[in-house]
User: Fold this.
Amino acid sequence: MPKPILRDTEIDLSPLLRQKVVILGYGNQGRPQAFNLRDSGVTLKIGARPESHKREQALADGFEVLSIPEALAWGDVIMMLLPDEVMADAYEKMIAPYLRAGQSIGFGHGLAIHAGWIHPNPEINVFLVAPKAQGRGVRNKYVAGSGVPGLYAVHQDPSGNTEAIALAYAKALGCGRIGIMPTTFAEETTCDLFSEQAVLCGGLTSLIKTAFETLVEGGFSPEVAYFECLYEVKLIADLLHERGINGTRKAISSTALFGDVSQGDQVIDGHVRENMRRVLDNIVSGRFSESMRREFAHGKPEIRRALMRDEQHLIERTHRDLHARLKF
Ligand SMILES: NC(=O)c1ccc[n+]([C@@H]2O[C@H](COP(=O)([O-])OP(=O)(O)OC[C@H]3O[C@@H](n4cnc5c(N)ncnc54)[C@H](OP(=O)(O)O)[C@@H]3O)[C@@H](O)[C@H]2O)c1
Assistant:
């Protein structure tokens, strides 16, 4: 059965208007979400640690900023918009000691709960509202009178009104202007991590680099290889976003279409599918989240090595060179 889609007219904002909301983490998601909530009439304040780099920005944006203990004493709904890798430590040391029965904590992504990094007391309501966009998109679409799709889920509901609060929160972000779908922490987390690894981030960057290297090894210039393998990805991504796969195929040349249908499955073959299954298995088994915790606990050695290595990759040097010399 298809998932239900909820829109603004079916969602009551008042359960959230009766609550005081605290945003913890004034970053990619926290700042745009705070703006949208304020414009939707929600009462909110920002919670920041003493050494916060974002306090001044939040004050300049017109928000009241409280210390985290003060914010937790004031608020009813605590939105956890911190980086995933700091959630467990921040929760244990700065948040859990100050929470009280009946409060709600919300997440923008389910990882910390699903991976078991955080085990909220059973008297705390726990929900997820995941807008399907980066923070900038969440704000820009809202200001334009539109929104981005959103997913919501409830992990525990001792107060009995957590779903109503989650839906109202998603509506206040503008997600109900497009559509809000129910999910679970397990589904949101698994699919989000998998798509980042197999498609959006890991898969795409590796596909681009490998294709670029193949052309350059074949004797072609880095500049033309760059245009064909990286630059034009945006054009196709926009078409895919708007029209889906066959709609995109109708918009490309007949040569490109024949190349697509005759060669695509040769490149992304059964071997790649096996690799993807392994990636999914690592996520489902918890091996990925364990290795992520180790990586961040040890100062991100694998991330730093990869960033340093790719900074000098020919495709990055070509990108910098063309951006300096062309009028993009
Ligand atoms: N980025 C996205 O597009 C996106 C999309 C959907 C969902 N999400 C989810 O939204 C959540 C937030 O992600 P984000 O990218 O918005 O995070 P982010 O921008 O990296 O968060 C930065 C904020 O977190 C605070 N912070 C950093 N380390 C902290 C610590 N140890 N203790 C307390 N506060 C700390 C920073 O405050 P200081 O000023 O104190 O340093 C800053 O305000 C994540 O769960 C993420 O998965 C993100």
